[in-house]
Target: ATP-binding cassette domain-containing protein
Amino acid sequence: MHRARRHSAVHSTVTETPVITTSGLSKVYRSRGREVTALDGVDLHVREGEVYGVLGQSGAGKSTLIRCVNLLERPTSGTVTVAGQDLTALAGRGPRAGRSLRQARSRIGMVFQHFNLLSARTVQDNVELPLEILGVSGRERSRRALELLDLVGLGDKAKAYPAQLSGGQKQRVGIARALAGDPKVLLSDEATSALDPETTRAILELLRDLNRQLGLTVLLITHEMDVVKTICDSAALMRGGRIVESGTVPELLATPGSELAQALFPVGGEPSAADRTVIDVTFHGDAATRPVISELARTYNIDISILGAAMDTVAGKQVGRMRIELPGRFEENVVPIGFLREQGLQVDVADTAQPAPAAATLLKEGAK
Ligand SMILES: Nc1ncnc2c1ncn2[C@@H]1O[C@H](COP(=O)(O)OP(=O)(O)O)[C@@H](O)[C@H]1O
Ligand SMILES: [Mg+2]
Model:
């Protein structure tokens, strides 16, 4: 019974309506005669109700992208549209536009890595801060703040001060504060990278719950692949200020040669001899439970070695990857490979002369 309830609660409600769109977004920083292109023509499309993860090494432009999405950073060129409103146009209309931009921004919540709480204010007063700025009356502020603290599981900490809270609790306050303006969109820049793994999981589950309960769209930056596997509907990989790969997680897994897929499902294993063909087979859904490998061995009467394998649940679906070795060179294995593809499996012929792609290092880079 418990399972059934969980199940009905986990359905996300992603629609095709774009809620965050950037087009041709560029940002060039100029300081002391030096130019740094932090964003180089980014086209990002985040759909309503999805959790969208941005990955990439330190310096790739992730933070700049998120800061441009709420116009904390002014793009050098390109446009940013959030919930149907062109923020870049608002920002461009001189000082009088300030008010409309502030209003539009109140519909975009932001969660920070280092929480950014005011230490002299109580938890409740921290959550009320954005409501004060919006000119909400004292009673309504207080009602709303307590409601939000309940929502993030901190109903009993309203009168505490940030210093009396754990890291995870501080981030919950940060999330409650980000929700104060009743945003459509929540932006999160490495919100969990200062937290231990267990707290990270709890915070991510909270973000996922908020996404589902409130229909909140979440754009988050992370360097943890587990985060992507656990909570993201879609993901993008950034490098050198550009998005080099993007799509829904199942789409990425079904894309031959996808670095993100390889990073989500690292399968290793070296061939045992030179005249071997090494292939990576990705199983989705039903195919994951069929005995295709033994069928292959029987049909072609070949010996197959399994070099590496991984099974996981991604976006609620069972996905597996297996690296196998077939005797003989690629040319001799065209037919068996075709057989696997006909079974609906995705087959990538591994270039074992190359080490695993850069995506592997993508995970090791710390937050900046
Ligand atoms: N305020 C700034 N002034 C000058 N250069 C900056 C500034 N912010 C970021 N950069 C540069 O822009 C690039 C992208 O940075 P950032 O968006 O922080 O990357 P990431 O979040 O992926 O680590 C880096 O080369 C960084 O040094
Ligand atoms: Mg950053």
